[in-house]
Write a structure and sequence with these properties.
Number of helices: 13
Mean pLDDT: 82
Number of strands: 19
Organism: Clonostachys byssicola
Radius of gyration: 26 Å
Strand content: 15-25%
Protein name: F-box domain-containing protein
Length: 521
């Protein structure tokens, strides 16, 4: 996405305006005849000219998120009113705004109210690690959008995408949340979390989403607690419970009645030490509250068409109700059309979906000292006389690096796949789906299962293009990395053959198993 900083939207506000005007624009503006000629061009022609101008300012490169402060089109708005309208339509389409710029943003939009209709996406950065600053930024945006839309009926409102990064670690209290104006023009909301961008707790993100009554797309990225180890199990359990409970509460309050696309993305890598015993984050009945909540949400929804889970630890609770006997009839997923799951090789119970031999690879300690990394090939061979072994950290899930689980474990993986296949039968509108196991940093050991209805392409992308041709039958496909030694059991094959009917179950040996999910939601 080619975002534009708010300061770069106006000709007179741009630091390079005078130079650009003198070199390129001023020569045009000084000639009445040329301006008259430009005014005679159709809007479509001028749009094409601006397209070429944009590429020339980028030295022929297509706009990317990295080039957020360019191309500098703002000075060209001074050519004429037509140019101003078309340049502003592009410059105001995708804006990146920091907390301290919200007031200026409000004034710039107020100066020309038509600019409100140009806005298609706002990326709000609330970088101060302060709960009040974060919440005041959200409230300011909500109040501003409410002022714009107060006298406009829903059907006439433009659609706006909002994405947020920052430090949202404090929940809004009920009174503050209820007094926050509704953001009626927002139809897509993305909440980002990560090491460099701050952390927005997922239940906080869902609180914000509750003030967006026309929301159609919701994507929440979150980061589970990692330290300290002695308290992490409880913290991770509570984190997942709170996310699941918040999701169902919004549904019960009818806050997400229009939601079509839901995405959950757990930020970060999986464990790098495959010998470490990971926490069990199931409840006292052995149920994974998060996967259970996602399943219930999808089964109750009357609008949800696409469900995307990235790096979420998957359990059978996602596909069936494990609290009741398996012979009990399960509810359908009435509206789901696309299901995309990309998971690590760990489960919420602490079990691993992959196995192997610990002796097949030597552990490698990584020592962090003064922001530098020193690698030791074999921690057992470090000379105590030169290196104090107490300097090494205690063994954790991330140290030493010991990635010895390289092959799928049939005893753990196959029951999960059978539950998935069973859920597919309860999705009457299902069009296509994907289940991808991605071992850390090793696409050679990946495993991908895809399925599609007649006339529908597979979801996985290869080199930016869909890599299969639609066929007039149900079909599914396993893509297996060339370092992966696995094949489905007879029961899996029998269940799949029953699902595809006259269709096919294919196998696609591949050098690597990778998916691109940037365009999935």
């Amino acid at each position: 996405m080619n975002y534009v900083n708010i300061q770069a939207t106006l000709p007179l506000a741009h630091p390079q305006t005078s130079a650009i005007l003198s070199n390129k624009t001023q020569s045009i503006a000084s000639s009445t005849q040329r301006i008259t000629y430009m005014e005679k061009l159709s809007v479509e022609i001028i749009r094409l000219v601006i397209d070429e101008l944009q590429l020339s300012l980028l030295d022929g490169e297509c706009p990317t998120p990295i080039s957020r402060s360019k191309p500098h089109l703002a000075p060209y708005a001074a050519i004429s009113k037509t140019w101003q309208a078309l340049v502003e339509d592009r410059n105001f389409a995708f804006l990146q705004i920091e907390r301290g710029e919200l007031e200026a943003f409000s004034e710039i939009i107020a100066a020309q109210p038509h600019r409100r209709t140009c806005l298609r996406r706002i990326h709000l950065i609330l970088s101060e690690p302060n709960g009040e600053s974060f919440q005041s930024g959200i409230r300011f945006l909500a109040q501003l959008l409410d002022e714009w839309d107060r006298n406009v009926v829903d059907d006439l409102l433009p659609q706006l995408k909002v994405s947020i990064t920052g430090w949202g670690e404090t929940r809004f209290d009920d009174a503050s949340l209820s007094q926050m104006p509704l953001m009626r023009r927002v139809t897509s909301f993305f909440s980002h979390s990560g090491m460099r961008h701050g952390t927005i707790y997922p239940d906080v993100a869902l609180q914000i989403a509750s003030r967006m009554p026309r929301l159609e797309t919701l994507a929440v990225q979150f980061q589970e607690p990692s330290r300290p180890l002695e308290h992490r199990r409880l913290a991770r359990f509570q984190y997942r419970c709170q996310l699941g409970e918040a999701l169902l509460q919004l549904q019960e309050r009818n806050c997400l009645s229009r939601l079509k696309h839901l995405g959950l993305n757990r930020f970060g890598y999986g464990p790098l030490n495959h010998s470490f015993e990971l926490e069990n984050v199931l409840d006292e009945e052995g149920v994974d509250r998060l996967c259970e909540a996602v399943r219930i949400f999808a089964q109750r929804s009357t609008s949800l068409e696409k469900l995307v889970l990235i790096n979420i630890l998957i359990s059978p609770d996602l596909f069936r109700n494990t609290r009741i006997p398996s012979t009990t009839e399960e509810p359908t997923w009435p509206t789901i059309q696309h299901l995309f799951i990309k998971s690590n090789i760990l489960t919420p119970s602490g079990e691993w979906l992959y196995t192997g031999s610990p002796d097949s690879i030597q552990p490698r300690w990584v020592r962090y000292r003064q922001n530098s990394v020193v690698d030791f090939d074999e921690y057992s061979e470090v000379d105590d006389s030169e290196d104090d072994m107490e300097d090494f950290p205690t063994a954790t899930d991330m140290n030493p690096h010991h990635l010895w689980r390289t092959q799928p474990d049939p005893q753990v993986l196959e029951p999960l796949l059978l539950d998935l296949i069973g859920a597919m039968d309860r999705m009457p509108k299902l069009r296509a789906g994907l289940f991808h196991l991605a071992p850390n940093r090793n696409a050679f050991q990946g495993l991908m299962f895809q399925w599609a209805q007649p006339g529908v392409r597979y979801m996985a992308e290869k080199d930016g293009k869909i890599n299969d041709t639609p066929m007039n039958c149900r079909r599914c496909k396993f893509t297996i990395g060339n370092f992966t030694d696995w094949e489905p059991s007879k029961r899996i094959m029998a269940d799949l053959q029953q699902w595809v009917g006259d269709g096919s179950v294919d196998f696609d040996p591949s050098t690597t198993v990778m998916t691109s999910y940037r365009s999935i939601i």
